[in-house]
Every structure is written in C-alpha cells, then in structure tokens.
Design brief:
This protein has 388 residues and is of the alpha+beta class. It folds into 2 domains: 2-165, Gcn5-related N-acetyltransferase (GNAT) (Aminopeptidase, 3-Layer(aba) Sandwich); 173-369, Aminopeptidase (3-Layer(aba) Sandwich), CATH 3.40.630. Helices cover 33% and strands 26% of the residues. The chain is built from 12 helices and 13 strands. Strands 1, 2, 3, 4, 5, 6, 7, 8, 9, 10, 11, 12 and 13 form a 13-stranded mixed beta sheet that branches. The protein starts with a strand and ends in a 15-residue tail after the last strand. It comes from Sunxiuqinia dokdonensis.
Length: 388
C-alpha cells in the first residue's frame, strides 16, 4: 500500500474522485458539492480551522485508489473532554480492513503528534449540523448535510477499535398533517398568543442582530453541557454566506420575552433534492442558474431542522411548541414542503427526543459518533446524559 498526503491539486482531485468508485452502484448517494467540501479545509473560509489544524491522506492499494481520510483538531473541540480529543472524517474506503487500518493508523499518529489523546469520527471541522456521524440505520437518500455511507463502514470502524460515544437519531414528520396530536397544537396556539412573548423570523438584512441573538441563546442553553463548544460570530457568518442561495428566511425563528432572546429554531431546505441533478459535484454559472430554476419550480419538497435552543429558564414553558406553531403557518402557505426531518438529536438528550416525539416525529435514521482512545487501558465512557 502507498500512503499519500493531500498537498496539491492532483491529489485534491483524487480525494474527490474516490467516492464515485465507492458509490458507483448506489442510487441513494448524492455527490456533495466539491466547493463546499474544499471550503471546510480552507481557513480563510472556515473560521473554526483558523485556530486548529487539518491534514488529509489517500491510500493506494495495488496502484488503485482505495481510501481517504482527514484528521483535524481545534481548541474548541479538543478541550471539552477528559482528554484532548481530535477528529477524523471525510472517510471513504473500499471494503478492506487493511486499507481502513492504514488510514486510521495514519490519522492516529498525526493527532498524537499534535498532542491529542483520542479521536472522534466521522465528524466535521466545525459545527455538528453537517458531515457528522456514521450511518447505521436508514440507508436511504439523506437530507442535506447528513452523512451517507455503505453498511460495511460500521465494521471497518469497530474492528479497528472505535466505540459508540453517542447515537444520533433523525425523526421525520409532516407538520401540516391533520393527524398530528390535537392536544399539542392547542397548547402551541395558546403559547404562541401568550402576552409578553414575541416571535420573529430571520432576515438577511438584519443578520448581525440575529447572529448576536443566536449566540446569546446558544451560550446560555448549552454552556453547562458536555457537548458545548463556543460559537464565534464569524462561524455563523461563514455558514450564512455559504448557504445564502438555499436559506429560507421564514425557516429560522427567534423567540423573545420582554425583548430578551430566549429561543431559536433553524431549518433548511433539503438541497440534496437539487444537488442530485449535478452528479459531478461541480458548479458553474449555468449550473447555478439551473439550480435556482429548479428551486423556483419547487423541486425541493423536504426540509431539515438542524438546531433548536431554549434558555434553561424557559425549557419547560411550551416555547418549543409555539415555535412549531409559527412554522406550521409558514408551511401551510409553502405547501410544496411536505416532509420535515428533525436531525439530529443525540441519545444523551432525552428532553429533546421527547419534544420530537410529542410533535409526531417518527424515528427513521440512526448515525453514530464513535470514539477511539489512544490509551487502550483507559476506561471508555459514553457521552453523559443531559439532566434537567
């Protein structure tokens, strides 16, 4: 086997070419947009990477491209656990344990040299909204930003020694369906009209206000949780700028109590329903115009809830139901959206799981975030449950 570090354009091309071999006969796979993947590895476009480091490799077996992997670490992620923890992701591999082991060994050695003592994967360099987790149940076309992989990947990872740090569940529902729980909507309508509460959706014009409100809510809601990591304003600006063509202003909602931001909700259209028409993963002016045309033709019928947060003081007040009430009014008007994915929620968050099930969500997919401790004698601990 030959190991090659990705350092030039030819190797970057090979990095993006490999998945077309892995998924050649798999109709469920949607080729990611190449520019979006490359932006993740560009510190000028990915603010998270400015304070961290990343490296990519390819493995050839018998002169044929057989595997790829990326390893990375950032202060915001590495410092929140019992041991410094890096990440691995963007893993693709033929069904060959020897090749997979070479990839994992390489990532482990690089991360250890960088001061890490464990590695999580498959994860993203940045927010866990995208490119996060190994699919183990629900092998259908995934929503935009959710990882897809062959079934045999699970065995490649666990045979090496990775263990489940937490499970990630994806729920589906039709929020406009009359079959949803009537009691839930009665409570939601009552809460939405309660005096002192104000609901408004995001606008690009006032993005800086909403970025500040998002961070204030996020910090207060998550700072005591094991999975908390600091979000900087530039992280959100980068995400908004890279997603401007696909974001719907009325899919992002904020709740205020007497002027103070107390909750947010963010949903995106399932752009994979567009991207699948561009299997090369490359865009030019004409393809962008075609994408906008397809969006105008209402080709996208699905959407994905990527994050939701409520400050602790209001987490049992019914705010979540009121947000769904606001969103339901939007989707009754934009009735070509008929499927909503709530993804993802970790098994460490039973409160959010209860909310997703209360609105009628049905669990349809499971991903895993896996962890490998470099000290094989150290006790492995799963992600702690978020308590009330």
């Amino acid at each position: 086997m030959q190991l090659v570090e990705v350092t030039n354009k030819k190797q970057v091309d090979a990095f993006h070419r490999l998945p077309y071999t892995i998924y050649k006969k798999d109709k469920n796979w949607v080729a990611p947009l190449r520019m979006m993947v490359e932006d993740i590895f560009d510190p000028t476009k990915n603010n998270t990477l400015k304070k961290g480091s990343a490296c990519r490799w390819l493995v050839y077996k018998n002169d044929k491209l057989a595997g790829r992997i990326a390893a990375f670490h950032t202060p915001g992620y590495a410092g929140q656990f019992d041991q410094p923890t890096g990440g691995v992701g963007f893993f693709e591999c033929i069904d060959d344990q020897e090749v997979a082991n070479r990839l994992f060994d390489t990532a482990k050695a690089w991360l250890a040299a960088e001061g890490m003592e464990a590695m999580d994967g498959p994860i993203n360099i940045g927010e866990n909204f995208f490119n996060w987790g190994l699919l183990v149940d629900g092998f259908v076309q995934q929503c935009f930003g959710m990882n897809y992989n062959p079934k045999y990947y699970h065995q490649l990872w666990t045979n090496y020694g990775f263990q489940t740090y937490y499970k990630q569940y994806s729920y589906h529902l039709n929020i406009t369906s009359p079959d949803l729980p009537e009691r839930f909507w009665k409570i939601a309508a009552w809460m939405a009209k309660k005096p002192g509460y104000h609901y408004e959706h995001f606008t690009f014009k006032n993005r800086e206000k909403y970025i500040a409100d998002f961070i204030e809510i996020y910090d207060e809601a998550w700072r005591k949780h094991d999975n908390y990591k600091i979000i900087e304003p530039q992280d959100l600006r980068d995400m908004i700028n890279s997603s401007k063509l696909i974001l719907e202003e009325e899919f992002i909602w904020f709740v205020y109590r007497d002027g103070k931001p107390i909750a947010f909700f963010m949903m995106i259209p399932d752009v994979n329903q567009l991207i699948k028409y561009f299997p090369s993963g490359k865009l030019n002016v004409f393809k962008v115009l075609k994408m906008l045309y397809l969006k105008w033709r209402k080709v996208i019928t699905g959407c994905r809830v990527i994050v939701m947060g409520v400050v602790p003081q209001y987490q049992k007040s019914g705010i979540e139901s009121a947000i769904f009430y606001q969103l339901r009014q939007v989707l009754l008007r934009k009735d070509w959206y008929n499927d909503m994915e709530l993804s993802w929620v970790g098994d460490f968050n039973p409160k959010m799981i209860s909310i997703f099930e209360a609105v009628g969500g049905k669990r349809e997919k499971t991903h895993l975030t896996l962890r490998y401790l470099f000290d094989r004698q150290k006790e492995f601990k799963r992600s702690p449950i978020i308590e009330d």
